[in-house]
Amino acid sequence: MARIGKFTTTSGKTMETPALFPVVNPKINTVPPRELYDTFGFKCLITNSYIIKKTPELAEKAKQVGLHELLDFPGIIMTDSGTFQSHMYGEVELTNEEIIEFQKSIGTDIGTVLDIFTEPYWTKEKTAESIELTLERTKQACDMKGDMMINGVAQGSVYPDLRESCALRMASLDIDVHPIGGVVPLMEQYRYSELVDIIMSSKKGLNPSRPVHLFGAGHPMLLAFAALMGCDFFDSASYAKFARDDRMMFVDGTFRLQDMESLDCDCPACRGRTVSDLRRMNNKDRTKVLAQHNLYQIVRELNLVKRYIREGRLWELAEIRCRAHPALLDGLRRLREHQALLERYDPISRDGAMFYTGPETRTRPVFKRYLDRIGDRYVPTTDKAVIFPETSRKPYSRGYAEEFAKARKAGYTPIVASSFGPVPAELDELYPLAQSLFPEIPDTETEETAERLTYQFLSFKGFKQVISPEQIPEDGIEEVDCDLIRAKAVSRYQFGIEATEALFRGEIQLVTSKKTGKIRNVISDGEHVLSMRAGDGLYTLRMEGAKRIVAATPAPFMRVSVMDDAIPFVSQGKNVFAQFVTDCDPEIRPMEEVIVTDCRDNPIATGRAFLVPFEIRQMKKGMAVKVRSGSQDEE
To answer: What share of the chain is helix, strand, coil (3-state, %, to 5)?
Structure first.
């Protein structure tokens, strides 16, 4: 669910997300805001409007020169309202209306409602009542905000149903950023499994066109995991608080200077220094250096998170980071319970290989999707199977070429009992089966799971005879077209059984690569309907194939329907943008082949989905379908 985005304020300031807002106490300049901008590259920060308002000299200056000049910060400034102070110290002495008006008066870019901080120990009844007050105050803020953007904080304590309900109601309001609030106590108590439930239940309701801010989350070891669940904004006061307590932040935890034996850090703040050097500094200088170190750790990790998002490898980074602490590992394991939602956001294929990092890797949605599809869409060619052990050589048909051929001739379907579960030979080239790396020495859990899934599959698909490779008869004489078996099996896996019947009708000609022998194009009754990609073993859909699927299946299957105004552009090969979509198949996944149609269900283009249906329906900007070819291109 992670994404790279561009966030723009009403004043025109922009920044890339995911982004972290360093918390600046306006009365304590541990690291000056200008240094945050110039040296560390932070394009945003968060400060507390309640503290400014309650400090007369700061309040007066802020009103006179504005918040940006007061702090000497040219980037985006978000202000908190005093809600966190109410959590820490009890009720604050101001109204929601007063704090909203004050935030507007000092030039805040993103203001915050005086929401009710829902504590983890509250009853469900008390939490529900407080949500009503938060929503009432948020509506008031929306009416008052003017040019200031506003945070609509999703609350709900530890109750997932209240979190989702609050998020849905917040999404209907005219707010600009979706913070998830009331989670700091959970993070302080390392209750990460509950944090996962809160984030995922909130994400079900929040508007995907708005950034999601995980309030109070800013430790580098948490950033990858939170980004994986779709959080766009973070904030951290810990960089300064920990520094004042002689604590240093790293991706594998927080450590007290007095307990450290050496300093293995090459950040600009630490370079050339030893632990002894830091201990000998006076308190003020040491606090500054440690705060700078903590900020550099955050910046480095956030940049790494962005790189892994772009490369489609964030699952690997999140799994590695979650092994830094048992409580984080609990959170990763809890994510298994949200696999169905995650699968809707997971691309149908990615560039590069999928790396296995441990048993928790099996919680990734790609495993669920594969097992669901072979269960629903795989059609065996025989009722007899040969079960082969997994090999590190992929695709499996490369290492087992002779054995697979022998099994086919004897009337058996070759199936590999892999770490993914059962892999019929005809599917072994598609993503992620051929594009994954597992240790050659498997863990017991993966071995047992693979065996269990394989035999469940054999029973479910009605195989009447199952043998080992050593039992394959030597006198097999059956002639089979392995390429045609593969071509149809991949199509069923990707498009379903009904669409495959339409694509593979009449006389079928398969065009194969002279160099590799792999399938490249599918010609049906003289029409080029499909092309197989070498990278992921899946098909790209041609216009002739799209027309067949539309004729054979009811809308909205595989369709993205667009307004009439967009038809001339899309038919020429221009991309489809979300604001022009009128309807789409709710089962579309990112990077999946789709058919762009007009409102009368006429196919006008083919391409790959770039957003999920939930996003397409609510995004006001952004590419929904990356069009490959329009109807005019192929005429």
So the answer is: 45, 20, 35
Domain co-membership, 429 together with 546: no
Name the DSSP letter for residue 283: H
Q: How far is CA 63 from the centre of its chain?
A: 40
Kindly indicate the confidence band of residue 29, based on its pLDDT and cuts at 50, 70 and 90: confident
The CATH number covering residue 626 comes to 2.30.130.10
Strand order in the sheet with 212-214: 149-151, 110-112, 76-80, 44-48, 19-24, 233-236, 212-214, 178-180
* Active-site annotation, residues: 80
Q: pLDDT digit string (tens) for 333-348? A: 999 999 999 999 999 9
- Contact (CB, 8 A) for 17 and 5: yes
Q: Kindly state whether residues 50 and 78 are assigned to the same domain.
A: yes
Instruction: Give the number of domains in the chain.
Output: 3
Query: Tokens representing 513?
Result: 């690569």
User: What tokens appear for 570 in the block?
Assistant: 């899309």
**Angle ∠(226,307,615) on CA atoms, nearest 5:** 55
The CATH number given to whatever domain includes residue 264 is: 3.20.20.105
What pLDDT, on a 0 to 100 scale, did the predictor assign at position 89?
58
Cβ contact 634:605 at 8 Å: no
533 inside domain: yes
CA proximity to 354, closest of 313, 403, 401:
313
